[in-house]
Queue: 2 jobs
Job 1
Amino acid sequence: MTVQCIAPKNSPASRCRVVPNFHSEATRPQPPSVRTYTIVSEQKRSTPNLLNASEREALRQRILQAEKDLRTMKDDYNASAPVNRLPVEVLSDIFVETALIDAWFYNSPSEREYFSWIHLAHVCRDWREVVFNCTRLWSRIAFFDKAVTEFMLTQSKDAPLTIEYDPPRSQDDSEDESADSNAPDLNYITLKLPSQAHRIASIKSFGDPAYLSKLKGPANILEKVELESNHGEDLPKEFLQKGAPLLKHLKIHRIAFKWSVLPLNSQLTTLDLHNNLSPLPKKRPSSNTFLETISSLPLLQTLSLVDYLPQDWTLAMALTKRAPTICPELRFLTLEDSSEYAINNFLQAVNAPKAIKSDIAFNESLGEKFVHILHGFFRAFDKFSNSGKKLGVRKLSVEEWRKDVATFYFTFVERIDCPSSKLILRLRKPTMSTCAYLRGFRELSLVDLSPLQYLRICPTFPNSYPACDWILLFGELKELATIYVQSTSIQDFCMALNNEVEEGETRAQGLAFPCLSAITLDQVQFWGHPEAPDDVEYLITTLASRPEGHRIRKLDISECHDFRKSDYQAIKTRLPDLDVTFDGHIHINIYL
């Protein structure tokens, strides 16, 4: 860097200025990174307060020039960064992804932080130019300031618009009215949207949807609509009544509507309707209307209905009066309803040969009717997804994260014509235990567990699965190779492995769990104080007693209570052929 000092004649102190030293056009290097600057230093004036007006103005001009030169140098430095060698199209894609991350993180389009990606334009002139010319960035419209909204509508040019808006529930939601004085009100939004209907590709709203009453359409490029609320407001009947021919994704949660006003068309691939605030039977469609709607959606791939299934059909009507409605492309199904028979009737009346995953929840306790209802459910489910064929279960996971709900995850064996399908079944259990449900599955032959290879048990309470139930339900399965247990009594589990039961209880015929080779113990309580049997010793003895050819080959231990490194070393020493892993987590229960 060149330093140039300038001292006026007869001056007691030198003065300085910062002057860029530009090359001539003939010799100036082309890359901005090699442009040179001359910084002129000066000695500090001993008595600056004696400057007259002209000298102060001259000093101010030199400061402005220095700041300008510094900005120029910063711009040139930033412009020479390697990232700026990327094509404009790639930079635009990076900026769009950054904007999507901001949108996901802040999750409220009414806040300025939701659009913090705008700071990208402040890095350098090149980035600013890319940002301002990227219409996709400006097409996600902001509604925290009218001027910003208008600017984005203009800057996005003809790009398809994404509308994300959280309408206020009242006019005095904001404590600081002055902070929102420039924010678009509902009248502004209501009047602005119709004029942009031809550009809107996506609408996402949380709150009262009344402002959508003027958006009648036609919305010729609209593909996605997501409306949610917590108060059950009515969907305006005028919404999209002139059509949205390309609509593919429709999601309406906790908003009341009549089935006839839904903007449905043959292009729809996702239909997601939830009414889990409170049941509204009067808003449910009739069975005939519902089945006609489903049959008119040949491309439907995802169907999710919560408390919106018809209630006027009977099992006899579904079985005898009409052939099943075919959903040829349906892959993912979610049904949740307070009416237990509504779910079974749907499965009887609809057939989805390509169904991959079904998530079914009975919101009411089945009580003493559970045998009859579940028998009807599994028969209907086999018809819905397997053309009446009962498929064996390859993997089963049973979870009780909530005390009143048991969740069963079934993974069925693969079919020649379709990949492995999955069923998630959620059952209320205020009076029924999870083991009682499993015993019902077995005794009624509701599911075929004979091909089961993987079992995962996660109960609420450690003693939920006594040894007799382990043996009765799973002890004689010929292909069960892996068991994952969490928060389960290790003593009951070891008793089951040893085929030990109380007097009068049923034992396994022959060796219990004959093909078991891998066990995972997660968050299991090990007891080892003098007043109780040593669970670690019991586990070692149990595993060592397995006959040759039926030994456990792999044992994983993670986050178990009162399991120490010395216990891990004892297992490794006494069972040298066992592949045992320990995560090192030591949690000592001080309350024992």
Job 2
Amino acid sequence: INYIHISIHEIWLRTLIDICHAEERLQTTMNSPENDLQLLCDNLAEAGSFYESSLIQMPTRLSIDDNEHSIDATFDFERAYCDIRSSIIHQFYELIHTIYQYDLGMISFDLLGKRMLSMMAKRFSTISSKINDIQQSCFDGDTQTLWCLSFNRFLCDIIASVIERIVRNLPLDKTTWQDRLNEMSWRDGFTEQMFIRFRHIIDFVCTRLHSKKTTKKNINIDEELAILQYLASSLITIPPSIPRMFFQKLQQTVVKLVVSPNENEDRPVHESDALLPVQIHGEIDATYHQLPLRTVKQVFVEVLTSQEMNKKTKTKVSTLDQITDDDSYREAKASLFSAGSSLSKITDNENDHYENVILNEELKDNRFHAGFILHLGTVTHYNIHVRVSFEDNNGQRWTNVAEKTICIKLNNRRQNRSAVATRPSLQQIRSTGATN
């Protein structure tokens, strides 16, 4: 194992340790029997320092191996998540510390406290906007990662709304926040225990604040700040899980994917209406086969196809669906086969129609093989996109680990009878595939 590989693992493990220590400090306060604001502030400050440490030691860019042509690994999402989590903890610290100073009589709410709270509400709104930008940039992320981002945005939004309710006497709609909570509940990562606790907190805060009179002279600011302090200390001590996307870039360096026929090879264009075997070969670098946090157990190969009629008009059609018998325009037809299996499956009617073909392959000596028979039609080109996903020994799915696209070019000349007569038979295709 070379030094570069070890350094990447060390960066990930040290970052994970810092994040776990940070969230552990917050949970320590939650498990404390006493409602000690000073202890909570100290733990928030310590948790924030752990997240700042993770940002310092995580490089902006790092080469994944010694190959000079290798694509550098960028940690944009990982740094962005640690940054927003650090900002949230810092703002919760400022909020709870301000309330604590008010309780000690060190600040006046009308002269200083109200202004400080208003500034915090704007900062929470700014963090929420940043989280929304991150969500938009990883729209194809897994559901657990999207939930982690929604969770942190929920914290910022509800705190900002409650502060606005106290400072400016704006309405606080309980139904709105219950709907936001229900929307998060179906996502991967939200446990039933967390949902029940969130619902109790929202019911309590919204009910108590809604029952208060809106006339300024009748507002009991001490009680409302106590409600705000309860909300802040309850929310920040609920630990979110680490986003799954946090680990995916390390997994993306694992697979060497080869799809044959290769468009770079010196091959003649393929005749239309032919049967073309497409082979998929993958190998996992032995260095990464057993990572510190998981072991690859199964491989999923997904095949998507599109077609181009001509240079001016491009149409993307699922070539594994809606097969027609029109001789003048025939889409592609494909069937999968795995290594060592019979190619007779291509004659089965049940395998004629697919939208996204997914083949589950087990690893053998860090390698996997798959393939399919592509029945070429009469269009100009076929684009075949192969995408690989993994499942680890914990049953966790890692999507879009490796991908490759190849282009199959067809001979547009109208076939004569001799060409049709010499087209390879199905039996010949089976023999060819069995020897590969």
